[in-house]
């Protein structure tokens, strides 16, 4: 019988424990797919005494994952520790330098050290597989790398963080608070060890950096991404979105523009009738606009143990076949260092929620500043405030009330400049809320 692929698994948390269970459950199918058996030899985590739902005594235990990476009876190291540096980085570096294949779900690591690690893997002629690093169970890496060579991709966008989509969905549909939803996402194993990465948009940015490289044949450049998270989204924004025919999603967008590749992550108003608006809960969706296929959308579970382990196991089976693919679709020295488009040049529609002092001339003052910046308003809506009306039936009380503007296409620079002037004029009581609009 062919020699088994001997695997070492570093990290036995949400994803690692699921990988062990699936490798056991699907043993026969995985052997068929990989052309040889896959055998877990070694495991590593911090706490040996933790109950992980399987018998640890079947495997060699390592307290330190870096030692596991050097073990002579391991051919393929599966890194599921997490974190851009520290133990995860040292484990992957050690494994690759010892000419061992690596499978990882660690997008933070790849976004920061992807080029260096890819070069190391290439020099050693081994695989560095990372299907599980983006969009959980959706095979987006394979799709971009293997299924679309006939295409020139112009735009790629999507919901890339399950935790944020889960939070926004439940806040809107069930009226729960941000903190309640986040707590549930953590309990269900969707969130990162530090959930700031999820809610402040960094996790989406790490994933977008990887997808941009694959889609456009460029070097990973996570630093170039404009990032905003969802922590500033207020229940009022969700209500206003509904009233105006939108839904709020945290999107990652990478797009070819005249000034370079624009990469941005931010909460986005999408038309309520659009297909991306229907993607709810922990589900992710990635849409690719390309010349031959026109539009391709992949939808599936974006986080969680089994969904992510599904992608990890697919990579392990690929490694077993011995088929080593160029990591980002091309040899590393052929990846372009593409110019990145500055966010100030971004052009699109905007939702702007101002908290204005309720008095005569305020709406006119806001509209004047918008007109001076050459921004055309599609709609302007002042919500009636019971408190303000009770205080002063003539509307001169200065009580803070929401004023919502929807603009036609405008540049980020002009919006920022108009808002600076509106703030300087003393028309608003709180910093403005700005959410970009993306129409399909
Ligand atoms: P997790 O539940 O926090 O598990 C992390 C595991 O790594 C734990 O078993 C922990 O040991 C071990 N570990 C942490 N630091 C260590 C160290 N210094 N030395 C040895 N072991 C260490 O994380 P996870 O959710 O499974 O995520 C793992 C990776 O997959 C991350 O890169 C994450 O971004 C990625 N990912 C996760 C998901 C998801 O839905 N959860 C989806 C896609 C990608 P103990 O158990 O002993 O504490
Ligand atoms: N924390 C991540 C998410 C895990 O919620 O999408 C999947 O990468």
TrEMBL record:
Pathway info: Amino-acid biosynthesis; L-threonine biosynthesis; L-threonine from L-aspartate: step 3/5; Amino-acid biosynthesis; L-methionine biosynthesis via de novo pathway; L-homoserine from L-aspartate: step 3/3
Domain ACT: 351-436
Source species, domain of life: Bacteria
Gene3D superfamilies: 3.30.70.260, Dihydrodipicolinate Reductase, domain 2, NAD(P)-binding Rossmann-like Domain
Family: Belongs to the homoserine dehydrogenase family.
Matches recorded under NCBIfam families: PRK06349.1
Protein name per its UniProtKB record: Homoserine dehydrogenase
């Amino acid at each position: 019988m062919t020699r088994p692929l001997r695997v070492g698994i570093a990290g036995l948390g949400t994803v690692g424990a699921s990988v062990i269970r699936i490798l056991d459950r699907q043993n026969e199918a995985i052997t068929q797919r990989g052309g040889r058996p896959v055998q877990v030899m070694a495991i590593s985590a911090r706490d040996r005494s933790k109950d992980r739902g399987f018998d640890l005594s079947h495997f060699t235990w390592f307290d330190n994952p870096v030692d596991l990476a050097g073990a002579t009876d391991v051919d393929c190291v599966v890194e599921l520790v997490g974190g851009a540096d520290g133990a995860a980085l040292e484990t992957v570096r050690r494994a690759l330098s010892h000419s061992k294949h690596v499978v990882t779900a660690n997008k933070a690591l790849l976004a920061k050290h992807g080029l260096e690690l890819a070069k190391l893997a290439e020099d050693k002629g081994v695989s560095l597989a990372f299907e599980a690093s983006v969009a959980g169970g959706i095979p987006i890496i394979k799709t971009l790398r293997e299924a679309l060579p006939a295409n020139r991709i112009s735009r790629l966008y999507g919901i890339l963080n399950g935790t944020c989509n889960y939070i926004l969905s439940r806040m809107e549909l069930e009226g729960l608070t941000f903190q309640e939803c986040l707590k549930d996402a953590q309990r269900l194993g969707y969130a990162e060890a530090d959930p700031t990465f999820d809610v402040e948009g960094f996790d989406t940015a790490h994933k977008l950096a990887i997808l941009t490289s694959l889609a456009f044949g460029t070097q990973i450049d996570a630093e170039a991404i404009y990032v905003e998270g969802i922590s500033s989204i207020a229940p009022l924004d969700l209500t206003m979105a509904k009233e105006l025919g939108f839904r709020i999603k945290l999107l990652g967008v990478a797009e070819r523009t005249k000034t370079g590749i624009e990469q941005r992550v931010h909460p986005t108003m999408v038309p309520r009738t659009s297909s991306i608006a229907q993607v709810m809960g922990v589900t992710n969706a990635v849409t690719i606009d390309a010349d031959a296929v026109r539009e391709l959308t992949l939808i599936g579970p974006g986080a969680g143990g089994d969904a992510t382990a599904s992608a990890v196991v697919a990579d392990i089976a690929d490694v077993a076949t011995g088929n080593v693919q160029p990591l980002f679709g091309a040899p590393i020295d052929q990846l372009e260092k593409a110019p990145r488009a500055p966010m100030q040049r971004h052009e699109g529609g905007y939702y702007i929620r101002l908290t204005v002092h309720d008095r005569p001339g305020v709406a006119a003052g806001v509209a004047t500043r918008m007109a001076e910046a050459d921004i055309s308003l599609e709609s302007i809506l002042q919500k009636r405030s019971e408190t303000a009306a009770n205080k002063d039936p003539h509307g001169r009380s200065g009580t803070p009330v929401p004023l919502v503007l929807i603009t036609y296409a405008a540049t980020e620079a002009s919006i920022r400049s108009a808002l600076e002037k509106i703030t300087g004029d003393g028309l608003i009581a709180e910093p403005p809320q700005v959410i970009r609009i993306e129409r399909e």
